């Protein structure tokens, strides 16, 4: 095995092009996951069984099946019912939906940790359900789980290569086409690995910072109640 | 109808490959997780560093990249693997890295008094680990291991991209041959969910079995 630096410099611009798509897909997918996860978590706690039961079913099903198959589903089956999505759009929706089921569990843990007294106090102050969620429960529920949410950003980032299977030209797809074109696998695939490793390690440090910042905040908040 | 039966067989053949990958992958991941997890809290600095290096590397890079690297780059260094071997190796090493952290945190979660008691009754380090710490730590690990096993099951879908004919691969074949997308994909989604449910159920049974007799010890 030999490592060719010349080849590395040649392919770097193309790979960076792919890295850009990877980052965009990660960020958009994560926004969707964070928003949709909260909706799932709140619906699951609804007193209306027509809302809570189906939500629980959807969450369990999506969590129990592979993201790759879900992506195929969005990309190949939806067009048959008249909804044609661009590859990147299908990818972002797939990532967002899949990880929303994970973040919804995180939110759920956060919501369960809010002391009962807070709900009762809100009721005593005659707040509506909406006001209780918005001003009392969610602020206390979300703060302590921010580090756990951030972990799923890293996890999702590492799953983006799956989008190459539905023809999104992200980093892994660029690397594979370079590799197939030049019959050289070592450099492109190793570079992709290095890219993921570096970003992940930086992100892990970020999560550790968030843990110090918000984790302790959460503890203080709970101790006071 | 006749035709669909034939295609159904194809998908079930794929399901068998998926199950094999999951079982072998889990077994390998479990072994790696225990070794690396114990190495992570070893007395010997070299072992600790090796374990940390392995864990951070495999948790930090994508499973996808690892699989491709094992399948396409290792042969250039003289190790040629079948797609099945590459799949089991990649899945096992990847999930094993996550599992190692579970093993570590579970062992550290066992009450320190248990270790002190073992020292007081003059058990060796090996005996302490084998008869006192691990039986209690395993109960803590189990639920997370169950989740990891489901992650591994879902990870098996990506081996279809290195030409292993697992369930996802077969669904693609059926799609190409029949032009029908919905039937094969909905079928495999249900099958994946069924296998995941079996894992969840099995872990719950195992948990009940292993917690027997630990009632007084656990908080």
UniProtKB/TrEMBL annotation, chain A:
Topological type in the membrane: Multi-pass membrane protein
InterPro entries found in the cross-reference section: AA_ABC_transptr_permease_3TM (IPR010065), ArtM/GltK/GlnP/TcyL/YhdX-like (IPR043429), Ectoine_EhuD (IPR014341), MetI-like (IPR000515), MetI-like_sf (IPR035906)
> Which subcellular locations apply to this protein?
Cell inner membrane; Cell membrane
Domain named ABC transmembrane type-1: residues? 19-207
Pfam families membership: BPD_transp_1
- Any one GO molecular-function label of the UniProt entry: transmembrane transporter activity
Keyword Calcium among record annotations:
no
The Gene Ontology CC terms held by the record are: ATP-binding cassette (ABC) transporter complex
Transmembrane segment boundaries: 20-43, 81-100, 136-154, 189-210
Which of UniProt's keywords are assigned here? Amino-acid transport, Cell membrane, Membrane, Transmembrane, Transmembrane helix, Transport
Question: Per the UniProt entry, what is one GO biological process?
Answer: amino acid transport
Entries under CDD domains matching the protein: TM_PBP2
Q: Which residues form a coiled coil?
A: none
Sequence similarity: Belongs to the binding-protein-dependent transport system permease family. HisMQ subfamily.
Protein name in the entry = Ectoine/hydroxyectoine ABC transporter permease subunit EhuD
- Organism (species): Jiella endophytica
Q: What is the lineage of its organism?
A: Bacteria, Pseudomonadati, Pseudomonadota, Alphaproteobacteria, Hyphomicrobiales
Automatic annotation (TrEMBL), chain B:
Domain ABC transmembrane type-1 span(s) in chain numbering: 15-200
So which residues are the signal peptide here? none
The protein's name in its UniProt record: Ectoine/hydroxyectoine ABC transporter permease subunit EhuC
Task: Show the GO MF annotations.
Answer: transmembrane transporter activity
Q: What is its main location?
A: membrane
**Database matches in InterPro entries:** AA_ABC_transptr_permease_3TM, ArtM/GltK/GlnP/TcyL/YhdX-like, Ectoine_EhuC, MetI-like, MetI-like_sf
Bilayer-crossing regions: 15-39, 51-74, 182-203
GO (cellular component) term, any one: ATP-binding cassette (ABC) transporter complex
The source's superkingdom equals: Bacteria
- Whose protein is this, by species? Jiella endophytica
Q: What is the lineage of its organism?
A: Bacteria, Pseudomonadati, Pseudomonadota, Alphaproteobacteria, Hyphomicrobiales
Family assignment from sequence similarity:
Belongs to the binding-protein-dependent transport system permease family. HisMQ subfamily.
Q: Which GO terms describe its biological process?
A: amino acid transport
Keyword annotations for this protein? Amino-acid transport, Cell membrane, Membrane, Transmembrane, Transmembrane helix, Transport
């Amino acid at each position: 095995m030999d490592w060719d630096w010349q080849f590395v410099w040649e392919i770097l611009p193309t790979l960076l092009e792919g890295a850009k798509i990877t980052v965009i897909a990660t960020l958009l997918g994560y926004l969707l996951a964070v928003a949709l996860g909260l909706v799932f978590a709140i619906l699951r706690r609804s007193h209306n069984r027509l809302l809570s039961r189906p939500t629980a079913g959807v969450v369990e099903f999506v969590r129990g099946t592979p993201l790759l198959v879900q992506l195929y589903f969005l990309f190949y089956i939806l067009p048959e019912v008249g909804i044609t999505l661009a590859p990147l759009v299908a990818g972002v929706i797939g990532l967002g939906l899949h990880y929303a089921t994970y973040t919804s569990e995180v939110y759920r843990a956060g919501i369960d940790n809010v002391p009962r007294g807070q709900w009762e106090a809100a009721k005593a102050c005659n707040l509506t359900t909406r006001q209780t969620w918005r001003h009392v429960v969610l602020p206390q529920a979300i703060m302590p789980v921010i580090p756990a949410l951030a972990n799923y950003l890293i996890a999702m980032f590492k799953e983006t290569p799956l989008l190459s299977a539905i023809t999104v030209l992200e980093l892994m797809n660029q690397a594979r086409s370079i590799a197939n074109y030049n019959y050289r696998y070592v450099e492109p695939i190793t570079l992709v690995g290095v890219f993921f490793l570096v970003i992940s390690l930086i992100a892990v440090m970020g999560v550790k910072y968030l843990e110090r910042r918000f984790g302790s905040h959460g503890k203080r908040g709970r101790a006071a109640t | 109808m006749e035709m669909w039966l034939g295609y159904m067989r194809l998908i079930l053949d794929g399901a068998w490959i998926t199950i094999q990958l999951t079982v072998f992958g889990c077994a390998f991941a479990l072994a790696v997780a225990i070794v690396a997890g114990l190495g992570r809290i070893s007395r010997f600095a070299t072992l600790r560093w090796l374990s940390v290096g392995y864990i951070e590397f495999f948790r930090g890079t994508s499973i996808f990249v690892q699989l491709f690297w094992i399948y396409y780059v290792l042969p250039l260094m003289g190790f040629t693997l079948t797609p099945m071997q590459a799949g089991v190796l990649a899945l096992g090493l990847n999930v094993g890295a996550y599992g190692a952290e579970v093993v570590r945190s579970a062992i550290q979660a066992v009450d320190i008094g248990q270790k002190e008691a073992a020292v007081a009754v003059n058990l060796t380090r090996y005996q302490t680990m084998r008869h006192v710490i691990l039986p209690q730590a395993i109960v803590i690990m189990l639920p997370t291991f169950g989740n990891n096993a489901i992650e591994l099951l879902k990870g098996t879908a990506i081996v279809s991209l290195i030409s292993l004919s697992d369930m996802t691969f077969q669904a693609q074949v059926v799609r190409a041959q029949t032009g029908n997308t919905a039937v094969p994909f909905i079928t495999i989604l249900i099958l994946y969910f069924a296998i995941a449910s079996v894992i969840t159920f099995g872990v719950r049974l195992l948990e009940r079995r292993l917690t027997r007799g630990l009632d007084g010890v656990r908080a």
